[in-house]
Amino acid sequence: MSAQLQGKRVAFLATDGVEEVEYTEPRKAVEAAGGTAELISLKDGEIQAVNHMDKAGTYRVDRTVREADAADYDALVLPGGVANPDFLRADVDAVNFVRDFFTADKPVAAICHGPWTLIEAGVVNGRTLTSWPSLRTDLSNAGATWVDEQVFVDDRLVTSRKPDDLPAFCEALVERFAH
């Protein structure tokens, strides 16, 4: 990849239960494009990733969401996993952090169950997006239009359904974050 994201800082908001490849693959894509990735989480130390429901690797947290400020970043990635976004959407600091990216009109990418946090932040009404299929009703109830596509870009919001969609998701988020 080229240096499309040179000088850009990208926040990855995740906590315990994050689907490992939905964190590691987009992070690799951001870094390969010259961007700086930072892991923002609910707690200091490390988070426990999963491969489906089985424990996978652990990852060092760069800063807590309470310490983080959306103004310091150019874009945001919300990886999935079932537990990760459920924990995030229950945390007021995490929800406010996500909302601040939309208020500032910065690009955001979410995959799989990641849009649960977008729903809680109140930022999906009137948007079209995709996700893991079980979020379809939640997104519709929040005013979004759900589509079953590998990747969908709605203005500055990039969404994908599942780990199989990661190549298309990573390509789309790098392209969107570069602008």
UniProtKB/TrEMBL annotation:
Keywords: Hydrolase, Protease. InterPro entries: C56_PfpI-like (IPR006286), Class_I_gatase-like (IPR029062), DJ-1/PfpI (IPR002818). GO terms for molecular function: peptidase activity. One of its GO terms (biological process) is proteolysis. The keyword Hydrolase applies. Residues 8-175 form the DJ-1/PfpI domain. CDD domains: GATase1_PfpI_like. It comes from the Bacteria. Belongs to the peptidase C56 family. This is Protease. It comes from Paractinoplanes ferrugineus.
